[in-house]
Specification:
The structure is a single chain. This protein is mostly helical. It has one domain. 44% of the residues lie in helices and 0% in strands. It is built from four helices and no strands. It is elongated. The termini are far apart.
Length: 80
């Protein structure tokens, strides 16, 4: 897997700051996958990264329903 550019890692580091996350390739959002800001920043950043040809976004089906009580937007879990 290609290494992300320094500007991309810096941009992601600002949106993904929690313990256990990683902005290296592969990227690990851990619990931040429920953060619309983190996910939007991730995809916008990767879209601009010239070395990235494809993205595999793994989301276990139980996570949205498990976190439904803890997120600000209750429709997000249904949408996911």
């Amino acid at each position: 897997m290609p290494q992300l550019s320094e500007p991309s890692r810096e941009k992601l580091s600002k949106a993904v700051q929690e313990v256990g996350t990683s902005v290296a390739n592969p990227i690990d959002l851990t619990g931040l996958f429920m953060s619309p800001v983190a996910v939007k920043t991730l995809f916008e950043t990767l879209k601009e990264e010239s070395k990235v040809d494809s993205i595999i976004f793994e989301l276990a089906v139980q996570y949205p329903s498990f976190y439904a009580d803890f997120i600000d937007d209750p429709t997000l879990s249904a949408a996911l």
